[in-house]
Automatic annotation (TrEMBL):
Keyword vocabulary terms for this entry: Membrane, Transmembrane, Transmembrane helix
TM stretches of this protein: 9-31, 51-72, 79-98, 110-141, 162-188, 194-217, 307-325, 331-348, 355-371, 377-397
Name this polypeptide is given: Glycosyltransferase RgtA/B/C/D-like domain-containing protein
Origin superkingdom: Bacteria
Amino acid sequence: MEVIRKNRLLAFWAIAAGLAAVLIWHLPWRFQVNDDEVMMWLVSGAYTGRPAPYAVFLHPLMSWCISGLYGLAPQLPWYPWLWFLGMFSSFVLLASLVQDKFGTALQGHVWTLFLFAFYIHFLFFLQFSIVSGFAIFAGLLARYGTVGKGGQQKTFFRPTDLFLVIGFLVRPEVLLLFLMGVFVLNLLFFREKWFFGLSFVPFLVAVVGYSISFVWISQSGLSEFERVNRLRSQVFDHPVLQLQKEEIKQSHPDLYHFSNGLIDFQNDPQLVGQLRHWKQELDAARWEDFGAGAVAKSFGTYVEHEHFLIGLMVLFSLFSLFFAGVKALRVLLALVLGMLALSPFFLLKVQIYGLVFLVLMLSVFCFLPHSPGQRPVSWLFASLVVLAVVFHFRSFFLSSANWVPAEGLDQRLGRLQADGYEDIFVIAPANVYSELLFHNPGRFKVMGWPTLLEQYQGKLPSDSRAYLVDSATYRGNEAYFEGDEMAGFESGLYLLLSRP
């Protein structure tokens, strides 16, 4: 009877997750960062004219697989479909693991509610690092969470290790982040010997995966591009640069424009040589200028824009204290201090907070004993999470009010193409052009690392260029466009034309 009830519960959560995915797909969800947009264009062929087997941030094997799917059926949106499928399948595995541990107890429902809240949030704000992290989180939970039920005697490779492989292929660095985070926490607090044996397969996945990537990139002649792109990313995401933009606006105007995403390596090849110099200056400023104010600004930005996620993290932290005791507090404090220690070296963006939250959940679930607790407390947390999820779905439905209809932009793109402009760059928030992402996305380009890719592909910049720039970006970076001709302003976008 208990098995039947557990299966019914798992079926309920699987159906709820599936319905949520279908509903969010038909809402105006968005990619959290434009890296996802450009990688989708590359593997679909919309950017270069044919599906590209190397999408820069994905593992080459993943790029190759997705580009192959687009080659078979180019009309289907494979890239976002796979990300939605990855999140859904990871959630179902996680829900089954929770049911295995807690059965039909109320405490297990609360755990699943937290996972469901995280799942729907990052379906709506889709980001490939989180897709990777959710899959790796599920794979590691299946490994570490089985200890005490004979898990350490199971086969060397397990079916659930496929989630580790998929997560690694989506974003290789995330697996290393999880392993290093849990490794340090185990040394500090848990001191479980079984951890090292169960971590061998995830470590092996990383070693083999990185080896394949290294050989693939070398054989493809992309080693120099990969090196320069890594340097570009280190400069662009440097915490000193992103948190102190206004301070450098007068002293380093080019670097200021760079920090705002105005990165055109194809039109200005000298930027490649400038990257190393900028990196050295920013590294030196890290110890001179980066202090508590910058950390507070970074965290303040996170709180301002991520009310739901930070509320979820606070609720789960309190939940952990009730049911896992003071050890959970130690883990939480260690993670917070770790983020503070790393803040001068890494820009703490929303995906970093999301991944650290998953490391906290992994640690509490797998390494800390859970007391049965009091049912009123469980009901309280369940009620709060349900209310948060309901309110969040309400905000999803209201999000269409912030969506910008794309008819005007579509018409402007058509006129510019008819006038013979070969390269048209849209420099604006994603909500301005999101409706066009899945319909003829190759009609325009975005600034950034794609122009670096074009430069290394040997493509010559076009003399006939047009820029559609949102008013806020233009006002803050007028000097960047001073060599271009102002040709109009419509629906919040300036039209600037390059002069031959």
